[in-house]
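Pipeline run #58 for the internal structure catalog. This entry was flagged by the ingest filter as a single-chain record with no existing model, so it goes straight to prediction. Upstream metadata was stripped on purpose; only the residue string is passed forward. Reviewer on rotation: M.T. Logging verbosity set to normal.
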Amino acid sequence: MRKWNLFTTNEIKPKGWLKKQLEIQAAGLSGNLDKIWPDIKESAWIGGSKEGWERVPYWLDGFIPLAYLLENKDMIERAKKYIDSILSFQKSDGWICPCEDSEREEYDTWAVLLISKVLTVYYECSKDDRIPDVVYNVLKNYYDLLMKGEIRLFNWGKFRWYEGLIAINFIYKKCNESWLLELAKILKNQGADYNDFIELWKRPLNRWRFETHIVNLMMMLKYEALYCELFDADYTDNAEYLYKILKEYNGTPVETFTGDECLSGLSAIQGTELCSVVEEMYSYELLFAFTGDNKWAERLEVVAFNALPATVSDDMWTHQYVQMSNQIACEKFPGKSLFRTNSSEAHLFGLEPNFGCCTANFNQGFPKLALSAFMFDNNEIISAIPLPSELKTEDKHIVLETVYPFVNSFKYTINSKSDFIFKIRIPSFAENVKVNNKSVTDMNLDFAIKANENKEIIITFDTVPYLEKRTSGLNTIKCGSLVFSIPIKFEKKMYEFTRDGVERKYPYCDYELLPLSDWNYALTGNIFTVFRNNIADIPFSSDEPPVVIKAKARKINWGLEDGYENVCARVPESLDAVSDEEEITLYPYGCSKLRITEIPII
């Protein structure tokens, strides 16, 4: 049932602003965790004494494609050292996770599912011929232990069972052995069925539970597509049904969902965990590949171009655990945490604010996005996510020059030794679409590329800013895939310290962001003017945004949330103007570390 297949890091290479973003990531926390963070540097996965569960696999899941996309020899060699070490500890029966044999029954096998997936990622990048046999043995051992009842799914493994389908699909395509299908059925039978939990999503609770955990839910969205591909079953788009319920009761302006850590309702001052952002992106990437349904690609764009860059620092050395739509400060709460199940420092920018899972897991966001630029099926190639990229196969060469989503123009240069069909996905919000300066009305663009033809395709279109209604009478300004916010100038307060043996020091220390400019604005109309700038060395720069919107506004007596000095009221206390009308400049959400995104109109 799969519609599109993914190219590998050997075939797709980033260009332009995307390559800059990946280089920033490689120079920041992602590219250095194995040098500075004990849970990676001294992990039990490589024979050390630190965490031996999800953190090394999480980190490798992003570090590996990042290294190969950038063709960074040092990073590639460091990735191989980790893989070599992990493989060296595999037991003769196939078990690969770092625990004693006597501890297997109590070991949460979420780590088995995760490392199996990561090894497939490594194989796609490296073509290391050891990996298929290693993954086969891991899965066969897992199947045998589950069948004998020596282990079972519980806790994270129970609620993330579908992640194992990625490796099962990978091996099944190579060997076509029926026990793999039985393994998938066992996982499904022992795993959680999220359709049973829908009522829990409609009313947020200050209670931690697996059924409403935001990362589980974002991973879960892809489960039906993965399962149907393995069994060649009919796809019902259950993901859309679940997505709509999550959005109605917990949606945010940037296509994410509140979860700090569990579902938190529609309030603009509740948080969204960073792990959920990158897992949501990965689910949408696979959902588009499996279904070919453009809605998943459009949603992916909004998450990737807004939520992801907003919650990491410009230099990508620090990140938040949770982000808020209306975030007027990132300052530790002096008393009770605002968040439902997170600590008072979860929104700080740091090494591991609140918890370290996001420290390791956020690394997959941009690299896997880069691998979604082009996809293929037989004799067709589609430009799926319009990112500046280069595709090289044995007989085809495609270069896309673009600064999208900041400017709405694409230039494709195509050379091919054989005939093929080239498709371009045009976003549904595009207006006045032109191909080589000729207007078109069909949004599904197909081009028959002939052998030995050199073809250039230039596409332009317009996007118009508009207001989208939010809850409690608030509104968000959108333009294409970008969401815009009122940016708040800030000063950074740096904290260097050691906690539980983990050192925070510049540049991977913790920071509070304290507001320096007014934020209590209401829009006075819906006339918006877009201004496009050059892209700085930092694509989603907090200081030099590549595009801004000018709007008219007045200050109001917005007020603060009861009990807090650094959190705006969920709903403004008054809409009465307390200033004359003025012109304000709105930044893309991804460029606004402090911001008001859900805004009233007077």
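catalog note: The CA atoms of residues 30 and 236 lie 37 Å apart.
catalog note: The longest strand covers residues 454-462.
status: ready for reviewer M.T.
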